[in-house]
Amino acid sequence: MKRVAVIGGGPSGMLAAAMAAEKGHAVTLIEKNEKLGKKLFITGKGRCNITNAAELEVFFKNIPRNPKFLYSALYGFSNEDVISLLQRMGVPTKTERGGRVFPTSDKSSDVIRAFASYVKQAGVEVRFNTEVESVTHTEQGDFLLRLNAGNALRVDALILATGGVSYPSTGSTGDGYRFARALGHTVTEIQAALIPFETEEEWPKTLSGLSLRNVTLRAYSTKGKLVFEELGEMLFTHFGVSGPLVLSASSFLTGNPAGAKLNIDLKPGLSQEELDRRLLRDFDSNIRRQFVHSLDALLPKRLIPVLVAQSGIPAETPVHQITREQRLALVSCLKALPLTVKCALPVEQAIITRGGVSVKEVNPSTMESKLLPGLYFAGELLDVDACTGGYNLQIACSTGALAGRSV
Known about the structure:
By secondary structure, the protein is an alpha+beta fold. The chain folds into 2 domains: about 5-190 and about 355-405, FAD/NAD(P)-binding domain; about 195-345, no CATH class. The protein is about 30% helix and about 20% strand. It contains 12 helices and 19 strands. The strands form 5 sheets. It has a 6-stranded antiparallel β-barrel. α9 packs across α11. The longest helix is centred in the last third of the chain and has 16 residues, at about 390-405. It starts with a strand and ends with a helix. The model has no long low-confidence stretch (mean pLDDT about 95).
C-alpha cells in the first residue's frame, strides 16, 4: 500500500483519487476550495457537457494539440466508461446535437455529486480549504508537501491535477505549473484556448446577442491557410464573436491570432448558383420594394442592415434595378461574410488553457513522469487541449483515471 496525494479536486483529480484508492492505496485528495468540482459546476453553462458520444477516432480529430499522447488514456477510460460510471452513480445522461453528452437533469451539480460519491465510496480522505504551498522530492525518494497553516504531508506518490489558469475564481491559478517546474519539468507557453475573439470590425457589436445556427465558419491563419471549417452555431457579442464554432476555431489559430481571417457561410446548404437562383425568386417576389426590404425571408432581421452594407448595394436601390454583378457580390457576401480577428480575450476568460507540462516528459501509458518516479500528471495541467463539445472533460477524466490506476 502506498501513501498517495492528489492535488486538485476537479474531474481528473477525483477520478485519479478514487481509482488509486480502489487499488488499496491510502489516498488523500487535497482541494483548496470548500467543495469539489467548482469549475465543473460552470461548464456547459451549468449543464455540464461531460463528454461526447463520438467514436474515439473522431475524438482525435478534435484534439489539435498532441492527440497521439492520449491514445492509452482515451482507450483505457473512454466516453462509454464515463457514461457508465455516471449511470452507476445514479446520473443518467442524454446525447444532444453534435454528440454532446449531458446529465439528463441538465444539472452539473449531479455530475459533481456522482464523482464526489465515487471518491467517498472508494475511501479517499478529502481535505478541503487546504492549499499546497510547495512540493519537494526528498532524499528518501518520497514527496513532501508543505500545506497552509504550517502543516505538511509526506507521500510515496503524487498526482498533480490542478488545472490551468482559466477561470481563476474557481481555484485554477496555475499552482501545478509551479509544482511541475520545481520538480524538474518543462512547462510550455501558457495561452488561452476555447476563447472568444474581439474583431477589428465594429458591426458584430451591433448584433450583440444574435445567435446564428447552421452556418459554416472558416478560419484562416495569418498566413492565409485554412485551418478550421465546421458547421454549427456561433454568437455575436459586445466585443466580437463567440459560440461553439468560434471557440473551436480558436483551438486551431495557434499563437497570436491577431490578423487571422474568419468567413461565415450564412447559407452552407446552397451552392453559389443555387443561392443566386434563390435571390432571383426573392427579388421577383419583392420587385416593387427597395433592396433593404427584400431580404426578410432570407436573413434574420437584425442581420439585414449588415449584409446590405457589406454588399455595397445602396439600401434604397429598387430591387428591379439591381444588376447581375451586384447580385453576385451579394451572393459572395452571403457565402463568405468576412471578419478579422483583433485579439483573443484574456486567458482568464478562456474555457481551458493551452500549454502546460510537456508531454515529452510524461509516459503516455501511465501518466507518470519520465523524470521522477512516483510523480503523475492529469487533466488540463498537461499540454493537450481539444475543441468544444465535451472533448476536454473526457480528456480530464481519461488522464485522471489512467494516473490513478497506474500508481
